[in-house]
Inverse folding.
């Protein structure tokens, strides 16, 4: 008898398991979103699902190159994507983006026109994108071990005094921009000699490196496992919120100003739902939630005006005009440039 | 005596090596601080809040679904296959066993990639693709656990039963099944363990929004782990420990009775 | 009667045979196809010869080195351990299997995270070292940490087959040898060692292959500084979007795995590691 009972439970279990996975089939609408890691407050996602009844399949990635591959592989049909300037430029060039028709997105009004203007480098006619956050790349450092004057230049990242205490970006172009800027070159160069020079410099630096990280940087710096890190401004602001002895600066040789934006890819099944999501994230309360969650500079003026003075004046989060003027925006690489970069990147990692 | 003490110490060191990291995680699951380095006092709150975290619960449900469905189906297909294989002639047997060894011996990364290439060609990645991949690497464990038991089963008793008028199914159930049951069971358990612990193959075959605990943890390891992950894993570990102890205890008693 | 019955029984493996064709053979063919074509679909061997490029060669050699190191350490740790366990004369050997399988029920990612915490600059190990007045060591994000993680993850796969083969040696055999005047060393060299070779070999295979092809452990404990051949392949698929190159390198990896197994099998009779479970 007992055995029969046991046997009877097996199909039941199976049925339950299958029911669970087939449930979201027909009646609920699904929006498949691809975004950077740590870049959207999960609570806000839940709110969107509750308000609209649209289920969000949310996927994350770490580096822009990874995102490009995930999208181009075609193994998943995405409805909405958020990524960095130069990758968007590339995808627009390849005809992968749909026109956004911003008039359908009332929340677009909340966005700072100057940031929309700055997007012209990758979306010249403002047809395809909606800016999400922007920021810089700079040095995050532990003030107990490093003094402010030293971090004025990228040179400090080659100082053997900090052997084993330096964290570099584990993202191809963010990593190469450091030696390129230190050498005084443009971070958009595809000149092989210049890039090789940059590689030599990075190889020289490698023995001093504690690790190549992206999203781990903040926690590792807060835990004082390293003294210096090349980090995004928001990652730095996040780390500063965890520990008092951290500071962030953009070195004088210049750096990268990036604008992460949303666009609707041509694999989108319902542009209407995608726009609903975009309008939702432009809404003041949601944009505020996300701002508090990610610590990057928001182009949402409604949110900005509401911030207290200390946050508004926090140059880690909101770069000064002076800093912005000293920074370059990434441009997309052509095929040869991409191949060259891929090879140099592997070479750095393999040696 | 010295030798005995030496070997005891050696045993303890290895056990410490295997179980200390797990102990660290269990301790962290009771830590009243989101930081993974600082101790903020004892709390049980993560054991409650984990049930309210939709992302974690979704990944947990996916993990359980995939593990259970894949292991049960693999046990059925694998046991049937083992019975069939045993009846085969030498060459057929060798070919099938060879093929069975492929997913076991091949690198996880190659298995994962090869399945991804196949799926991408014909369909989109999603929940089903992960399930199929898990089934593929689960079945061999079942077969290799059942086959030795089958080989040890006396064929004459089965044939005698048939001669006495039993139907093949009845004879199988009465004679073969009791012999192979432990093998089927340990095969099932192996399949569950392998499915639960798999990362690489799931990583390459999963679609958007499909996350098992492993793939979710892989991304969370970079951005910082939610403490609820520790508590959920501790709970799972505790349940596994209890279940396995229970099984061991029961079969131990049975053995004693039989002896 | 007999013929008819046998026919039916073989039929039972039908679903599995279909499965093999669809999900084992076909995927391998896919990888072969991608490996010998370029992005436009025409035949090329470039993806396979790409292994000779210095970058890939370095990654492969490093993988081989770390995998050999890991296997050797596992063997050195596991063999004495198996002897000790065997010496305990446990009534129920499944208990040993249980003890070594149990850690796998804690998610691998979390166990690796635990090692990150233990080994990091301000981690538990260094705190202990410091309080003892010793110098700190930087282990995390080095290839040593990667070997450490591999040994931790794969050790059970070495212990179990060796223990299994050892427990099958009857104590009467050993007693007989002793009665005939063999000393402990002779018993070990002439009896225990030869009779456990098969266990050692399946242990080596079960550790060496995953260690050679791993990409997760090096990713998480190497701090992005340790590039193994598994990481190269993963990056070709997930970052550079060169599936042909990735497949070509996978083929090379498969050849290496098969070669190492063939090599081991020549030196020992076949004994599936699966017998352990």
């Amino acid at each position: 008898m007992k055995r029969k009972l046991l046997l009877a439970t097996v199909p039941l279990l199976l049925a339950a398991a299958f029911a669970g996975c087939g449930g979201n089939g027909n009646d609920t609408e699904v929006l498949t979103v691809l975004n950077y890691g740590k870049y959207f407050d999960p609570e806000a996602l839940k709110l969107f699902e509750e308000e609209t009844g649209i289920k969000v399949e949310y996927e994350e990635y770490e580096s822009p190159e990874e995102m490009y591959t995930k999208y181009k592989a075609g193994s998943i049909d995405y409805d909405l994507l958020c990524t960095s300037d130069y990758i968007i430029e590339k995808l627009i060039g390849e005809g992968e983006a749909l026109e956004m028709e911003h008039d359908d997105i009332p929340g677009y009004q909340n966005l700072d026109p100057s940031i929309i203007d700055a997007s012209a480098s990758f979306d010249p006619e403002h047809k395809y994108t909606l800016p999400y956050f922007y920021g810089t790349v700079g040095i995050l450092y532990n003030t107990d071990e490093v003094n402010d004057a030293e971090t004025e230049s990228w040179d400090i990242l080659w100082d053997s005094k900090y052997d084993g205490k330096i964290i570099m970006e584990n993202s191809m172009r963010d990593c190469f921009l450091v030696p390129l800027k230190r050498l005084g070159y443009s971070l958009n160069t595809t000149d092989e000699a210049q890039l090789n020079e940059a590689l030599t410099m990075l190889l020289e630096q490698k023995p001093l490196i504690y690790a190549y990280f992206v999203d781990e940087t903040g926690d590792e710096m807060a835990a004082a496992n390293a003294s210096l890190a090349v980090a995004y401004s928001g990652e730095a602001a996040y780390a500063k919120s965890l520990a008092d002895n951290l500071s962030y600066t953009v070195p004088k040789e210049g750096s990268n100003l990036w604008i992460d934006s949303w666009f609707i890819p041509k694999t989108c099944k319902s542009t209407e739902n995608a726009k609903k999501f975009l309008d939702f994230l432009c809404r003041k309360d949601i944009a505020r939630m996300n701002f508090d969650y990610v610590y990057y500079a928001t182009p949402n003026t409604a949110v900005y005006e509401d911030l207290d003075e200390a946050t508004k004046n926090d140059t880690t989060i909101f770069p000064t005009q002076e800093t912005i003027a000293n920074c370059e925006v990434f441009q997309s690489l052509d095929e040869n440039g991409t191949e060259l970069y891929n090879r140099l990147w592997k070479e750095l990692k393999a040696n | 005596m010295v030798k005995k003490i030496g070997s005891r110490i050696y045993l303890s060191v290895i056990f410490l090596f295997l179980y200390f990291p797990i102990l660290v995680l269990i301790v962290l699951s009771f830590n009243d601080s989101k930081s993974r380095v600082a101790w903020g006092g004892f709390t049980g709150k993560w054991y409650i809040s984990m049930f309210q975290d939709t992302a974690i619960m979704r990944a947990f449900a996916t993990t359980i679904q995939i593990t259970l469905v894949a292991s049960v189906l693999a046990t059925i297909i694998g046991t049937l296959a083992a019975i069939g294989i045993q009846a085969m002639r030498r060459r057929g047997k060798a070919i099938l066993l060879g093929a069975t060894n492929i997913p076991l011996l091949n690198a996880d990364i190659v298995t994962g990639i090869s399945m991804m290439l196949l799926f991408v060609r014909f369909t989109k990645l999603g929940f089903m693709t992960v399930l199929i991949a898990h089934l593929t690497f689960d079945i061999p464990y079942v077969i290799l656990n059942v086959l030795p038991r089958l080989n040890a089963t006396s064929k004459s008793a089965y044939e005698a039963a048939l001669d006495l008028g039993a139907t093949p199914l009845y004879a199988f159930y009465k004679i073969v099944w009791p012999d192979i049951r432990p093998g089927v069971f340990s095969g099932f358990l192996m399949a569950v363990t392998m499915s639960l612990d798999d990362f690489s193959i799931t990583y390459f075959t999963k679609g958007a929004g499909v996350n098992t605990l492993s793939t979710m943890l892989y991304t969370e390891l970079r951005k910082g782990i939610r403490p609820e992950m520790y508590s959920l894993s501790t709970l799972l570990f505790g349940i596994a420990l209890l279940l396995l102890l229970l099984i061991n205890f029961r079969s131990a008693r049975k053995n004693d009775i039989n002896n | 009667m007999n013929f008819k019955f046998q026919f039916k029984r073989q039929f039972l493996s039908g679903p599995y045979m279909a499965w093999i064709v669809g999900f084992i053979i076909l995927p391998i063919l896919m990888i072969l196809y991608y490996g010998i074509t370029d992005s436009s679909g025409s035949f090329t061997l470039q993806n396979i010869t790409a292994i000779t490029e210095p970058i890939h060669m370095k990654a492969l050699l490093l993988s081989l080195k770390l995998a050999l190191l890991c296997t050797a350490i596992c063997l050195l740790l596991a063999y004495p351990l198996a002897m000790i366990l065997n010496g305990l004369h446990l009534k129920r050997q499944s208990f040993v299997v249980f003890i070594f399988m149990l850690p796998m029920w804690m998610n691998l990612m979390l166990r690796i995270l635990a090692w990150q915490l233990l080994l990091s600059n301000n981690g538990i190990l260094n705190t202990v070292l410091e309080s003892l007045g010793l110098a700190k060591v930087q282990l995390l994000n080095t290839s040593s940490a990667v070997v450490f993680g591999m040994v931790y993850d794969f050790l059970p796969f070495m212990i179990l087959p060796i223990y299994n083969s050892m427990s099958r040696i009857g104590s009467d055999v050993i007693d007989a040898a002793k009665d005939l005047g063999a000393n402990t060393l002779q018993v070990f060299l002439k009896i225990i060692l030869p009779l456990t070779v098969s266990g050692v070999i399946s242990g080596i295979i079960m550790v060496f292959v995953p260690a050679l092809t791993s990409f997760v452990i090096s990713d998480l404990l190497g701090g992005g500084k340790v590039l193994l051949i598994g990481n190269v392949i993963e990056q070709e698929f997930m970052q550079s979007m060169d599936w042909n190159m990735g497949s070509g390198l996978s083929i090379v990896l498969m050849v290496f795995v098969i070669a190492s197994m063939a090599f081991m099998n020549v030196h020992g009779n076949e004994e599936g590691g699966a017998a352990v479970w």
Q: What stands out?
A: Confidence is low (pLDDT under 50) at residues 269-277 of chain C. DSSP finds 13 helices and no strands in chain C. Chain C touches chain B through 83 residues (CB under 8 Å). The first helix of chain C runs from residue 2 to 11.
